[in-house]
Specification:
This protein is α/β, with parallel strands linked by helices and 363 residues long. Helices cover 50% and strands 10% of the residues. The chain has helices spanning 2-25, 30-50, 63-81, 89-118, 131-140, 143-147, 179-182, 213-222, 224-230, 268-287, 307-324, 339-352; strands spanning 155-156, 185-189, 195-196, 199-204, 241-245, 253-258, 292-295, 331-336. The strands form two sheets. A six-stranded mixed β-sheet has the order 2-8-7-4-6-5, sandwiched between helices. Mean pLDDT is 77; it is low at 1-86 and 107-118.
Amino acid sequence: MAFQMSKLAARVSLSKSVGFISSAGNRCPSHLNFISRLAHRSFHALRGSASIKVLPSPGVLRKADRWEKVSTASKSLHSQSGGAVKPNRATRVIVSAVGVSAAVLACLSTSTLHAMNARPDLNLDSESSDWKEAKKKLCSMDKEKRRDMYRVDFIPLEKIPVWSPSGVSSHEPRYKVNEELNKKISVFTGDITRLEIDAITNAANKTLLGGGGVDGAIHRGAGPLLRKECATLNGCETGEAKITGAYGLPAKYVIHTVGPIVYDSVGESEEQALTNCYYNCLHTATKNHLRTVAFPCISTGVYGYPPDQAVEVALRTVREYLEQNPEKMDRVIFCVFLKSDKELYEKMLPAYFPRGSPPKSKL
Ligand code: AR6
């Protein structure tokens, strides 16, 4: 009985702390709240029949304080109830039920507290969180801690191979062989939001407030704080680039750019605007000491830039930027989503990043 009472006391304290976790972290599953309410009601019923004094509410306590209160509360109830309280059978049934609930809840609450510990005061899911505070905290975390915060699965840089040509290129090289630059290029097929690198670039619109395609995927992955930060940037003109935190994404930053819209055919101004997108994103990255960057195929979705022309702009601009700033960038990843884009990049890369010819056989 004393054991059950101790659990009950623990439950009273825990129900408060779980309530706190629920409102702060929005991570408390509804069944926990249900158990919490059930236990609370049972406790009040028991209090009426057994004349037990209610402990002062612990309110929102620090984790250590909460556990201290739990143990004090257990002792207090134990001594108060010792022999003097003789509950009837119905009360014993209620107490047992509450005891089991408390044990289950204690386990669940412990794991919730661990999760809270891993995500200290940082809720990336809530629109009411302070984006500046969140950005600052994320920037100060090491990689292991940040990994607890990701809202999507991640792919580390080590799992993204450096590009190597498959088969013989039908294109004449347009630049000299430079093996140092070749080591900085990757082609990744898949979702850009999963890349754990310094910065991913976003094919955004002028409002920077989100949209469809890759823009939508980035905003969904990052969570509501990305939109909050974007709302402070006064939009973005075509060809420009603006940088924000990446919040729940594995990348550290998002560089937003707005590609040109192609209505009929690509003219000089569209081509220049797309060149500016790639250049300004790379420039923004290096200005912020970011050394690993991924690009989606900017403008080639709903903005209608023909992919076979866009690939040439992308490769030329990156090649020339790397030639001029070889020491400032470790890796540029061309992130392709469609099989047709993957084939285009595979076909065109040897023209912009040619490999050295293999040594000639002396036979
Ligand atoms: N990861 C990588 N690439 C992706 C992903 C992803 N998760 N999703 C799509 N793509 P688009 P745009 C590819 O239309 O043409 C938005 O509504 C996609 O296959 O996203 O520059 C903005 O808000 C394509 O190759 O961008 C703007 O209003 C590429 O990303 C507008 O679309 C770009 O397609 C911008 O249009």
